[in-house]
Write a structure and sequence with these properties.
heterodimer; A: 377 residues; alpha/beta; B: 128 residues; 5-stranded parallel sheet; 20% strand; globular
Chain lengths: 377, 128
């Protein structure tokens, strides 16, 4: 510990040193008794405590307090005097004095030194803590400001991005809507043209008196209607490229049965069609196949007054494949006739279209006729 | 079989001709064939047919549904719509039209016959 003693009186300095030596064995004392020595001490600095008299021949204690405060901040100062009184004590405390000890109470000096050093240490620590806190706070504020700016920039970029996306989405939606309208219009026009073709065939058929020729024209019209129904189903459906087989094959069967309505009371038509989604490439051949098989059954399976049932089944098989079965309880497919080489245009179409959809066909003659076609979807 | 006097409103001439032949074969009398909504209104009011067979899409500004509304605002007679639209949604703009029947295009002869019979029953007329 290093102690600066400012006192003109040698006896008093000895008194101080004696008093402190007992308490602080390793203390080092620097004694000052004129201005120049004080100035030198201020330059050297590095004191743990300063003890000053009030009454000095070259200045007074309050001046000393101010000088030390200015030159050596954070150094505790104790006034040790027997002059000055209460007023000086108050002024000194206001100026930054740590303690005030009367010379008559020298026994208090070591305690005052200890307390002053501790007080100063605590104050310094507190100030440093406050300063550190302030620094951290400042840094934090800078960081928060930076982060806020970054966030703002991001938000602005995001908003701009969203606006761009919204515009793109709207454009896409409009394009999609337009495409859908065009597709619907196309399906409608195709259907209209199929009506014209059907009418042309009908007008042409009128020119012939031969009922067989007229029947052939009628077969063609059924085929045209089977195709038209595809466009109608696509037009009505949610998707414009795929068709639910159930939505198509059932109305197609009903439409055909209506054309042969003379059979209505004798033949019961049943449909068991599962939900299978077909592309238009599969749906058209599939519809035409059903048209031919069902027409055959309606025309040939129940001659004269025969009664019975026609069953149409479409079911999913292993993933990616399904089977269409048209069966009837009629007179049965003629023995010895190979459906693959028959002259009948209808059955030729069935074989051709099965090939087109990469399917396989089989015929069963038990208790009527059942033709099954399995094809990939 | 009920037969009647029929006005055909259809802008496709081939389809109209086919319809005329078929209806005649069935025993109906085709009073006139027109292609636009305006002509349909004029003929319907002048000729008082038993049934108007009306295409939904027509030549000119007016469609079949609008023409039917004009006609039924003045005379009560059954209208049979023909439409390639085939769903009643396209006829949804005319919920007040009565009676209200339609056939899908391309039409099946049996469907045409049945629908017309039903329309004629509603009109209660059998004048040929």
């Amino acid at each position: 510990m290093k102690v600066l003693i400012i006192d003109d009186n040698l006896t008093d300095r000895a008194l101080i040193i004696g008093s402190l030596r007992r308490e602080f064995q390793d203390a080092e004392f620097v004694e000052v008794c004129h201005r120049q020595a004080l100035d030198e001490a201020m330059v050297r600095g590095n004191f743990d405590v300063v003890i000053t008299d009030y009454r000095l021949s070259w200045t007074d204690g309050l001046q000393v307090v101010m000088t030390v405060q200015e030159q050596l901040p954070h150094t505790p100062i104790i006034m040790f005097t027997d002059t000055g009184g209460e007023e000086v004590a108050v002024q000194g405390m206001k100026a930054g004095l740590s303690d005030y000890v009367l010379k008559g109470q020298v026994f208090r000096l070591p305690i005052a030194v200890k307390e002053s050093i501790e007080k100063t240490r605590l104050r310094k620590a507190h100030e440093e803590a406050v300063a550190a806190l302030q620094r951290v706070n400042d840094e934090l504020e800078v960081k928060v400001a930076e982060r806020t700016r970054t966030l703002q920039e991001l938000t602005e970029a995001l908003l701009a991005d969203i606006a761009v996306r919204q515009r793109a989405e709207e454009a896409l939606k409009a394009a999609l809507q337009e495409k859908e309208i065009l597709l619907r219009e196309t399906h409608h026009r195709v259907k209209n043209n199929l009506q014209v073709i059907s009418s042309l065939l009908d007008l042409q058929a009128e020119a012939s008196a031969d009922p067989q020729v007229r029947a052939m024209f009628e077969d063609s019209q059924h085929r045209i209607r089977a195709m038209a129904l595809i466009h109608e189903t696509l037009y009505r459906g949610d998707g414009l490229a795929q068709i639910n087989a159930a939505d198509y094959l059932q109305p197609l069967s009903a439409q055909l049965a209506e054309a042969y309505r003379t059979l209505n009371n004798r033949v019961v038509l049943k449909c068991q069609v599962e939900e299978v989604w077909l592309s238009i490439n599969k749906a058209v051949p599939c519809g035409l196949i059903l048209n031919e098989l069902l027409s055959n059954a309606l025309k040939h399976a129940f001659p004269e007054a025969a009664t019975g049932e026609i069953l149409i089944v479409l079911r999913r098989e292993a993933p990616g494949s399904c089977t269409l079965i048209v069966s009837d309880t009629g007179i049965g497919f003629p023995e010895g006739l190979d459906f693959r080489t028959t002259e009948s245009l209808g059955l030729q179409l069935v074989c051709l279209l099965t090939e087109q959809i990469e399917g396989t066909i089989s015929l069963e003659r038990r208790g009527g006729t059942a033709i099954s076609i399995t094809f990939p979807v | 079989m009920i037969t009647g006097r029929i006005l055909i409103v259809e802008d496709e001439r081939i389809v109209a001709r086919d319809l005329e032949r078929r209806l005649t074969r069935m025993g109906h009398r085709v009073l006139a064939i027109v292609a636009s909504g305006q002509e349909a209104i004029a003929k319907a009011l002048a000729l008082h047919p038993d049934v108007v067979l009306m295409d939904v899409r027509l030549q000119g500004e007016m469609d079949g549904v609008e023409a039917a509304q004009h006609i039924q605002a003045q005379v009560r007679l059954p209208i049979v719509f023909m439409t390639a639209y085939s769903d009643t949604k396209s006829l949804g703009g005319a919920p007040d039209l009565q009676p209200f029947l339609y056939i899908r295009k391309p039409f099946e002869e049996a469907a045409l016959r049945l629908t017309l019979e039903r329309a004629l029953e509603k009109s209660g007329s059998e004048n040929v």
